[in-house]
Amino acid sequence: MTGFRPLTALVPGGDTPAGRAWLVTFCDLICLLLTFFVMLYAMRDPDPHRIRSLVPVVPAAVQPSGVGAEPPDAAFAVERLERGRVVDLDYLGRVVEAQIRRTPDLAAVRVQRRPEGLVLSLPADLLFDPGAAELSGEGAAVLGLLGRVAGTVGNALDVVGHADPTPAGSRWISNWDLSLARAASVAALLRQAGYERDITLRGHGDGRFGPSADVAAMAQARRVDLIVRAHGSGR
């Protein structure tokens, strides 16, 4: 073609290393433009339909607000737990809290994240009659609800009984025996509810009772703790 000249011929230096130095600046400019457009794309409003399609794959995904968005508890349901797998304790805590909000019978259960694991504290007055280690009907129903969660996860589980300083009665040698027997009853029902792995039982009696002796502290001392560990069980 008449008048056609290579691009390198229009640049001072021609087709030499010095003459091709402009390519470095050109590549930098292209990279900056690409970065700018990626940033614009990232700042756009998310598509609610695409996010909802990811929820079955990522259980903890947060639904966008707006028409058709699921309730806040929908992403934290027992059915979304993968059976037999070790579950992240923060996520499991949100699952249990969502279950408690949906179930009035679980309102007395306290959920705490401690260094030893996820602790679910169940008042003994909810589970047992005074001085007894056999679960009451109400206590068995409450544990049956929690057993749905416990039977699904593969995390190691401890059941720990506690008591207040009040004498346990003639049936028990000490408060330690009573607290351990109650822990054994809770573990047995969790086993029936579907938890198939080893359960560690412990009884503390009133050994963890603080110096206070008011009514609220006494009631809090009478409890059974379910401690879900971050690691898996041996079986």
Q: How would you portray this structure in words?
A:
This protein is an alpha+beta fold. It has 2 domains: 7-42; 79-232, OmpA-like domain (60s Ribosomal Protein L30, Chain: A, 2-Layer Sandwich). Helices cover 37% and strands 15% of the residues. It is built from 7 helices and 5 strands. Helix 5 packs across helix 6 (175-193). Mean pLDDT is 77; it is low at 59-71.
Second rung of CATH, namely the architecture of the largest domain: 2-Layer Sandwich
Q: Terminal Cα separation, in Å?
A: 80 Å
Helical run tally:
7
What spatial form do the alpha-carbon principal axes imply?
elongated
Give the % helix. 25-40%
Task: Supply the helix-strand structural class.
Answer: alpha+beta
Biggest sheet: strands side by side, in what order? 1-2-5-3-4
Annotation, overall tally of beta strands: 5
Strand residue content: 5-15%
The radius of gyration computed from the alpha-carbon positions, rounded to a whole number of angstroms, is: 30 Å
The unreliable regions are 59-71
> Mean of the pLDDT scores?
77
Biggest sheet layout: 5 strands, mixed
Write down the secondary-structure element order.
HHHEEHHEHEHE
